[in-house]
Amino acid sequence: MAGHGADEHPHGADRLCEAGDRVYSRAVRRGRVPRRDAEPVPCLLELALLHPDPDDMDWLVPTSPQEVMTRLLRGMYDEVSASGRRVGSAVAAVEWYAGLGHRVRPAASAAEGPAIRVLDGLARIQAAMDEATQACTAEVLTVQPGGIRREAELSEGLHRALALRGRGVRMRDLYTHVARHGQGLLNYLELMGDAVQARTLDEVIDRLILFDRTVAFIPANSDRTMALELRHPAIVEYLVTVFERLWRLAIPLTAPLPDTGIEGISHREQSIAALLAEGHQDAVIAERLGISVRTCRAHIARLSETLGAASRTQLGVRIAQAGLDGPQRSTTPLSVPGQESPSVR
């Protein structure tokens, strides 16, 4: 086994190397493999995916896929728990430093207001947004997550948008691809005319509104009844940079979504396949793409049918084989009998 150390196989059980995948799959199918077959892939022994057969040490038997999945999920849970503890520690530290900050005399530049202000309640949020709208003279950048925009959401900010348009302020909005199917958004953009540019992505960050690159608003809780008003130049500049990079990656609303290059699989299903390959649950995928869990599962069912997968485990294998488990890219069309390349769903 010389020359095949762990440095040549820097991966975990969540993403095997190609040679390891072949040997482990063969071991699962046949129940065991000769020890010599595993010499080029010491990662399988190091990751405890193969272990010696107690009846014959010249053979290796596989750890069951179910046990491997349980181990991976346990590790993921431990990582999430550790992250939660780190977040809790960071919040406690922020509160401690904030308490110290009350004892420091504010600088002269703070006369315009605090760099970070918590807005508690929809009324305070609306008032702060109206104030920022009235002061805005050049540009508004927004990120609107979720799926199809409801009429009530669009109407809520319409008076501000019309006021901005009347003063010649330019607006750029980022949405998820799902928002393309909402008639309310199309009516809103038609009303606003060339004052607004809109682009879409598979998924975007949480809601963000930036006025004149000097003040930003972001949610402060999950139900958006609290918000943060940010005026610290470094924070606002960072958020502008995030927006600009997403904007360059996004597709204009007037342009069609790119074809997947795989017959029978839509652009949205390609996005779902990539998130499935990352190990995300249906509810998480639905939230990130701005669709319902029911719609997400319908797309997963179509993926399974198109790729000929009889189970979720097999679907994961087929997704990898079709090249759908990584960044979206052009691929050689995969012919599926009786199906045509669909339009964006």
UniProtKB/TrEMBL annotation:
HTH luxR-type domain location: 258-323
Region (Disordered): 322-345
InterPro entries per record: Sig_transdc_resp-reg_C-effctor (IPR016032), TrmB-like (IPR051797), Tscrpt_reg_LuxR_C (IPR000792), WH-like_DNA-bd_sf (IPR036388)
Listed PROSITE patterns: HTH_LUXR_2
A Pfam family of this chain: GerE
Transmembrane region(s): none
Composition bias, Polar residues: 328-345
Domain of life of the source: Bacteria
Xref: SUPFAM superfamilies: C-terminal effector domain of the bipartite response regulators
Gene3D superfamilies: Winged helix-like DNA-binding domain superfamily/Winged helix DNA-binding domain
Coiled coil: none
Protein name: LuxR C-terminal-related transcriptional regulator
Organism encoding this protein: Streptomyces tibetensis
